[in-house]
Amino acid sequence: MSLYLWFTLMVVTSSAWIIWFLYRPLKSNKINLESSNITLGKQKLLELEQDLHQNLIDEKQFNQAKEEISTTLAIELQEVSNIQNNASNNTWVLILILVLLPVMSISVYQYLTPESNMSQPLESAEKPLSLEQSANKIVQYLQTNKDDSEAWRMLGLTYFELGKLDLSIDAYEESYQINPKDPRLLVEYASMMISASDNQFSDHSVKLIKQALEIEPNAPDALYLAGMFAVSQRDFILTKGLWQRALSALPEDSIDRVALVNILSELKAAEGNKNTPKRFVSVRVDVSDKILKSRSSEDFIMIYVKAVKGKPMPIAIKKIKLKDFTGQMVLTDQDSVIQGNQLSTHEQVIAVVRISATGSAMRGVGDIQVLSKAINVADNPSIHLEVK
């Protein structure tokens, strides 16, 4: 129940009590005093006349008693008139109170209630902004605040969440030009560039990682990316050193520690076993007619495997246009994204099927994705996935 409703009920209750208190005594006196006094006066006169006729009193006594009765009756009638006047005055007082009580109560309530409390329910009822609306608001803000590096960074991150990688990179570039000494910004910018280029390292992304490490040598994210670049160059000794430094820099309660420990274990296993047997994962995919009708034939279908735990980066991947897909793909070490992180070095993986309009490695808006359960690579498994 709202505060206004409670307030109204209180005013109505108070008014009803005042009406009962002031008006009930007036209504409870149902005797007509004026009529009663006149009747009594007449009765006394009749009794005097009877006494006179019976010679119980003389003429002088009769006249004297009659005069006393008339005087008394006049006084009582005056008192009745005063009572009626007072009753009339009480009625007007009652009306005045009933008018002033609500007006005064509302005025005091409005005076004591802050405006911020009145507007608070309206503000709390507003719905949170969507990612698209947030991006539009940041763009409007940047029209008059073009030198706000943090706003450009937030715009880049928002575009990344929306799957607009090109716009995300442009926004990060603006932020980088304003504040090139922020290691967090440098690492995020490099990650965006790597994601947009199907997990390939460009000269610019490598430059950003180096700059971040020059500013903050023990930045865990920068060390991890540097280790990934070393893996792509097949420099596993450097990779191990960089990732161990990153592990030492992470807090004990960080969830990234578990993922990094697993990656280091896999790297150690790969170093200790150069003659790893050939492994493969065969993936058969059935795409329903409903999905095919809703997608363009130029859309891409990507089939890849990723680690069960840790970073969601593909281990091995194949990509083809939907119109050219025959229904089955086989992933081997030759399809590995990074040479040092091959399919055959993993014990368990998860197979992923994704249909995308852009073909980007990062999942975008409108993409359809299906995942398998964890599968053993050593079994050279053949799995079946349905996209409905």
UniProtKB/TrEMBL annotation:
<keyword id="KW-0201">Cytochrome c-type biogenesis</keyword>
<feature type="domain" description="Cytochrome c-type biogenesis protein H Ig-like">
    <location>
        <begin position="281"/>
        <end position="386"/>
    </location>
</feature>
<dbReference type="InterPro" id="IPR056412">
    <property type="entry name" value="Ig_CycH"/>
</dbReference>
<keyword id="KW-0677">Repeat</keyword>
<keyword id="KW-0472">Membrane</keyword>
<keyword id="KW-0802">TPR repeat</keyword>
<keyword id="KW-1133">Transmembrane helix</keyword>
<dbReference type="GO" id="GO:0017004">
    <property type="term" value="P:cytochrome complex assembly"/>
</dbReference>
<feature type="transmembrane region" description="Helical">
    <location>
        <begin position="92"/>
        <end position="112"/>
    </location>
</feature>
<dbReference type="InterPro" id="IPR011990">
    <property type="entry name" value="TPR-like_helical_dom_sf"/>
</dbReference>
<protein>
    <submittedName>
        <fullName>C-type cytochrome biogenesis protein CcmI</fullName>
    </submittedName>
</protein>
<feature type="repeat" description="TPR">
    <location>
        <begin position="149"/>
        <end position="182"/>
    </location>
</feature>
<keyword id="KW-0812">Transmembrane</keyword>
<dbReference type="InterPro" id="IPR056413">
    <property type="entry name" value="TPR_CcmH_CycH"/>
</dbReference>
<feature type="domain" description="Cytochrome c-type biogenesis protein H TPR">
    <location>
        <begin position="140"/>
        <end position="254"/>
    </location>
</feature>
<dbReference type="Pfam" id="PF23914">
    <property type="entry name" value="TPR_CcmH_CycH"/>
</dbReference>
<dbReference type="InterPro" id="IPR051263">
    <property type="entry name" value="C-type_cytochrome_biogenesis"/>
</dbReference>
<dbReference type="InterPro" id="IPR019734">
    <property type="entry name" value="TPR_rpt"/>
</dbReference>
<dbReference type="GO" id="GO:0030313">
    <property type="term" value="C:cell envelope"/>
</dbReference>
<dbReference type="InterPro" id="IPR017560">
    <property type="entry name" value="Cyt_c_biogenesis_CcmI"/>
</dbReference>
<feature type="transmembrane region" description="Helical">
    <location>
        <begin position="6"/>
        <end position="23"/>
    </location>
</feature>
<dbReference type="Pfam" id="PF23892">
    <property type="entry name" value="Ig_CycH"/>
</dbReference>
